Hints:
- By secondary structure, the chain is of the alpha/beta class.
- The protein is 47% helix and 15% strand.
- It has helices at 2-31, 38-49, 64-74, 90-94, 131-143, 178-181, 195-204, 219-229, 236-248, 268-284, 292-303, 311-315, 320-331, and strands spanning 54-57, 79-83, 95-101, 107-113, 120-124, 145-148, 151-154, 160-165, 186-189, 262-264, 308-309.
- The model has no long low-confidence stretch (mean pLDDT 87).
Amino acid sequence: MSAIMTAESDAIVAEAEAAVAKLAAAREEIGRVIFGQQSVVDNSLVTILAGGHGLLVGVPGLAKTKLVDTLGTVIGLEANRIQFTPDLMPSDILGAEVLEQAADGSRSFRFIPGPVFAQLLMADEINRASPRTQSALLQAMQEYHVTVAGSSHPVPRPFHVLATQNPLEQEGTYPLPEAQLDRFLMQIDVFYPDLDAERRILLETTSADEAAATAILSATELASFQNLVRRVPVGDSVVEAILKLVRSARPGDENNPQTDLIAWGPGPRASQALMLTVRARALLQGRLSPSLDDVMALAEPVLQHRMALTFAARADGHTVRNIIGELKAQIA
């Protein structure tokens, strides 16, 4: 048995070393096009490596759309984009069946796939569509197939959704329900670039020779890396930190005063998300096993959209980020 375990460990190490080199090249290639958003790029890659979907939240003009387009090119995925609007219908996303008449006069229905049938789907301004349209995307995100006219149609694999949301403009929007928010592995906040990054943006994106990304990975390689992430070993201390952090973010713990401020908290899916993302982050940074630092770094992106504070807590000026910070301090 020990020989088998040793052989498996050696195989993981060899695969990880090859994956680290490829992922480093992918990060560098994305960095030639996207400036000053390294944490956003890394969290997006972590989301995809972990096999999940990401919600990019930021004001307009921060290159969220360009990031998704660049990601699709660099990691070798077929990408589509949907601009969500209030009049968008489920069939505009999923596709529809049309009645066709053959030369002999016979008629039959043919399914015309919608833009959801891609490996990387950008759902731009997802909160502008109606709940009915949002729920149509939910099935594809969770079950990896869609149902049209009673027939099931699988989406391509790997399949990832990177949705964008504007936190400022609330008029004419439909806030995502908690069930759909929970389907997103991570909420990735996109902030303004720093001075040096914005200077580089100014100089390089307004010149005649704007950088264009090239493919570094293929869909097959990405799928093998996603399988590798699930085989990366996790130490007991990291597992216990994940459990303690997620469970402390739920209401009802008499020994933790912070839980009195929480209206509802993360379920077991959050623990699963943290377990996968800390492995993916370790691999992305060239390490063969995650550490407590990975848990601390990913706590906010994984938990913040899975929590809500009570009205009294919000009235007193508490925020979800502050509460997560206090919970992290109890574990560190």
